[in-house]
């Protein structure tokens, strides 16, 4: 998967689109490891602003959040046409993905058990 992600500039994620998050939270992506993997490879995450995605991506800081098809289209088109924004978000996505590294996980786990 790393190979595929490394070839991508933009990563879309839409699990939960069209679903009622309040009444059916189980239909949302709860964490989004694929978003973290794509971010680590430098693909800008353009993800639905529901479920765990909004915990991983901060809009216009390390990716983009959307809720409608029109927003998804506009955000994607803007990224394609604005290489500076694409590069900035990709760099920040890589940095943000490090929050979920094995090293960070072990350190946080040790804080709990020690």
How would you characterize this protein structure?
It is a single chain. The protein is 51% helix and 11% strand. With 114 residues, the protein is mostly helical. It has one domain: Glycogen Phosphorylase B (Rossmann fold). The protein has a three-stranded parallel sheet. Strand 1, helix 2 (33-40) and strand 2 (44-48) form a beta-alpha-beta unit. The chain is globular, with a radius of gyration of 15 Å. It starts with a helix and ends with a helix.
**Strand proportion:** 5-15%
Strand order, largest beta sheet? 1-2-3
Helix proportion of residues, in percent? 40-55%
Got a strand count? 3
Q: CATH superfamily, called what?
A: Glycogen Phosphorylase B
Rounded mean pLDDT score: 94
Helix count? 6
Using the coordinates shown, work out and report the CATH topology. Rossmann fold
**Sheet of most strands:** 3 strands, parallel
- Which descriptor suits the 3D outline? globular
Helix-strand pattern: HEHEHEHHH
Low-confidence stretches: none
Spell out the blueprint of helices and strands.
Elements: H1 2-7, E1 10-13, H2 33-40, E2 44-48, H3 53-56, E3 64-66, H4 69-81, H5 83-97, H6 102-113
Parallel strand pairs: 1-2, 2-3
Helix pairs in contact: 2-5
Summed up:
By secondary structure, this protein is mostly helical.
Keywords:
114 residues; mainly alpha; Rossmann fold; three-stranded parallel β-sheet; 6 helices; globular
């Amino acid at each position: 998967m790393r190979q595929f992600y490394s070839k991508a500039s933009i990563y879309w994620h839409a699990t939960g689109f069209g679903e009622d998050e309040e009444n059916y939270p189980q239909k949302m992506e709860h964490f989004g490891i694929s978003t973290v993997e794509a971010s680590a490879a430098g693909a800008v995450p353009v993800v639905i602003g529901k479920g765990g995605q909004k915990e991983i991506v901060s809009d216009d800081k390390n990716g983009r959040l959307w809720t409608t098809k029109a927003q998804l289209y506009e955000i994607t088109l803007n990224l394609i046409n604005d290489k500076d924004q694409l590069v900035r978000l990709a760099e920040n996505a890589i940095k943000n993905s490090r929050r979920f590294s094995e090293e960070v996980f072990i350190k946080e786990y040790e804080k709990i058990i020690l």
